[in-house]
## 1
Amino acid sequence: MKDAFGAPQSLLVLGGTSEIALATARRLIALRTRRVWLAGRPSPALDAAAAELRGRGADVRTVDFDALDSASHEVTLGKVFAEGDVDAVLMAFGVLGDQARDEEEPMAAVRVAQTNYTGAVSAGLVCAGALQAQGHGSLVVLSSVAGERARRADFIYGSSKAGLDAFAQGLGDALQGTGVQVMVVRPGFVRTRATAGLPEQPLATGPEDVAEAIVTGLRRRSETVWVPGSLRVVMAALRHLPRPLFRRLPV
């Protein structure tokens, strides 16, 4: 359950090495989140993330999780929920891909879609069912403004996020009245390891900015969070631009 600060007492992170997820976990631990599960592929980076969060006072455990292995999700994530109530799940895994390469190699494009969308549908439904069974909890889904309208520069990634965003919104509607909240987070360009070397886009933010917005959204029980907030207005305009004009924009 959430404490007086609106922070979950326990947190499951899917994508345990995500810079945004770890920034969020640090903020929540400072607000008295006491148990954290970091789910991801076994790696020194996952172990280091767990050690760092333990140093902040949380009971942290790592979980072997592969977004592409949907067949394992029910068992793997079921074991986490069997250990006790999970107050919040942060779904923060995903890949950007390489647009030029992925257009030339269809199977690489499929991997982007399977990770960002198919894997998220599988894990999201498993977690939503478990949260509903316990009668409470929040599912935070890290989407992207790239899913609002496909751009020539990244339409493979953008289309996968568009599917994820629509899925999360529908799931939230389906869970109304169950005690389970679904919050969709739509950041713009975020300065992370994944975007290093890419041209920086207008209204760029960092992992800490997204983390702050997530924590605020959990406290307010928001359904949709834009980071930065001004992107809501920007994307409302871009969404309705005629395609010939949209193609000519430097985005």
## 2
Amino acid sequence: MARDTGFPDADAENDFTRMRRHAEMSRLMAWFTRQPADVNTVLPFDEVVAALGRVGETALGLQQVEVSTIVGSVDRTRDFDRYFRPTSSRIRERWQRLAAAQRRGESVPPVQLYRVGSMHFVLDGHHRVSIAIARHFRTIDAYVTEIHTRISADGINVTSDLLLKDHRRLFLSRVPLPSAQAEAIRLADPFDYAELAENVEAWGFRLSQELGEYLGRAEVARRWFGEEFLPVVRMARRAEIRTDLESDAELYMWLACERYRLVRKHIWDDEIIRKLHEQGHRRRR
């Protein structure tokens, strides 16, 4: 807890001034180190949920929430930074009034939060959260509503991460793999998800033609993963092709693209593997 001098109004003013100074120092440090522009931006709830795919919600009631997990806002993304430090002096009057009231021992109602994964987003109580951070409180009382999403929120740190999540969600809607198999498909470039989805759909179309029957998306996804993705990746790993690629999905994407570029075929055999092995060595050099 910040040091209390016994003068609530003065202490509240000092807290706000300190928070504003830290916010500006962080902006300056980000500029000096050429960090992404959104590194200190509070995460926008609507964009996060849209990227992950909202499927439902559950009211969890009154809880004590770790202040460090509050990283986003429903509608006040311009007034506070990622650490709920005020981004301007526009909210000074109300901020200091609430902070002084807290220091005088007046009751403070719980804030209202949305929970997405391990992250919390403020629906009501932005100033109270900011004041709690200024006074180094570890927890805050909150009414929490948990939001259930199509894909996991893990890995979201800055706003730019949402693009990757959004494309991954769209990929899994086109290629509905079970959760365990979906975890094996990880790509660094968000636009590669669309290319991979087209690859899977084309594979499923050729399989449907070969079998003479229609296959739904779930069946195509299941068979593609077991009959195409896993065998190809295992062959490539045994042949030590593109060992610089740690992600199996990245490796499969490279293999599929190079195979068609080199031989214009959609088959796998020893000759193709040999050519890809040579191509991989040339790529590393």
## 3
Amino acid sequence: MEHKRITVNGLDLAYVEAGEGPLALMLHGFDTPRLYRYLMPALAEAGYHAVVPTMRGFAPSQVPPDGSMRLPDLIADANGLHEALGGGSDAVLIGHDWGGFTTWGAAAAAPERWSKVVVNDVPPLKFYDRGSADPDRIERYVHFYFFQMAIADQIVAANDLAYLDWLWDHWTGNVPGYDSAEDRKAMKEGLNTPERLHLGLELYRQNFPAATFGTPQWDMVRVLDRLPTQPTLYLHGTEDPVVDEATLAEIVAMLPPGSDGAMIEGAGHHLLAEKPQEVNERILAFMAR
């Protein structure tokens, strides 16, 4: 595994890579690229050039000078990385959390770049309105609303970013056999200055803005109005309540031929690290088809 840097869209981005072959680009979210520590070597061994970049704004990648954490720019970063890393039409794109939103958009925006797509724990945008009036669902997404407030910068930073520990538990809980301590530490290190933490919160403020979120003027609807045309694998943890078996079936039915999906039993929102053996096996089998 090698640590490198690359310039994409005028930004200096950090990344790690392993292996040779078709590009396999893995995108993280409001967490840590460390979640790919099991999948990355497995893809390299399977004959891929496995690359895990650190998202703009998160350490050690560059802070964007214009402060943009908007999804169109994240999508441009993903497709720009494909270009800069010499990816071909046989490249594959894998995303989790905000990397999942980015993957849905990047694969649809540039289908010629990506042969297959994998998204973990972030369904297509249209499925987010399921149960939106349910108080339990509102409580599950409480950070989307809380992060809109300016005081969130101060509160999230307090007590060694204790709010992020709570948020991790809120979405994952205690998965037997998975010790999240190092992943939580890595998440905090990625947001290790007030400026970087602010940009992390801006992911939610800029893409789910209070003034337009849920209205016809909401930009995310237009950015994610198309699904990939490539075969797509969608994986979701059974302990992450956004998607259930019935919803999974609806998602797969909307995807193009050759697509598939699965619920990962006992996994929460961070299934790449919580159930790495099963997740790796499903992704590698999908890639080999």
## 4
Amino acid sequence: MNPNPSLTELCPLDQTNDWRPLYITTGKYSGLSIVECKHCKLQALFPRPNQKELYTKDYYQGKAEYTYIDERDHKKFFQYVWKARIRNIKRFVKSGNFLDIGSSFGGFLESAKLEGFSVQGVEISEYASRYANENGIPTFQGDLLDAKFPNESFHVITMVEVIEHIENPNLFFKEITRILKPGGLLLLQTANFDGWQAKTEGPNYHYYMPGHVFYYSDTILKKILTNLGFSRFVSYFGVDFPLYAKLQKSRGSFQKWKDYFQWFRITFYHFKSKWKRNGFPITSSYVLYAFKK
């Protein structure tokens, strides 16, 4: 029996519709209802707000209650992370067609383009995608499923803090598999709910937000992608770029010299993310590189 009859989505791992209530959140975005698949323990937000109504111009300019840091204001500092990530990607895929889903204003793709990739974005926001197109980053405005890219179009597909926003993951994962070339790389950055940080903080965990729909783990993502024909994985507990890039990026938000003391906290968390307890990471920061057969 499904305890939430209106939650009609099948679990993207076990293809069942058998959810149970888990939490009412108590963190920054309190009062959200979290449910869990009884079989594989995947979590979901339900009921949920209208996703399209969340991503307004105010969201992209950092002015909404649920919001996004406008990357254009801190581009000089964001580039440290973008460039470091591209360098790591090039350890596996040297060149080719590069798709970023949830590409926002196109800053990350601009860095990929400078490194020799042929780039394409997908962005739901008309406001952000228009800016990217006007600045030479080809960006499809809308949902990936509506873009209808040809089969095996891309050597690299990236989704940085995006997969948790997707409302139809079954269709979405299949579409990613269809358009990724054999041997191609899929990069996913999200929270890892195998991590102790998510487990111990429970309903107070900061990653429970109105725009996040499904909550994954390293174990669950690998099982989903293995079922779709992915055969090799590299998991980064923390991030897939060096601490130096993270510290340089943080400078974009500093306003006085005392802010540099935050580097101690950032450095501690960076190294803490590499530690494990009983086989599971201490933190829930996470990036997965998955390679299609």
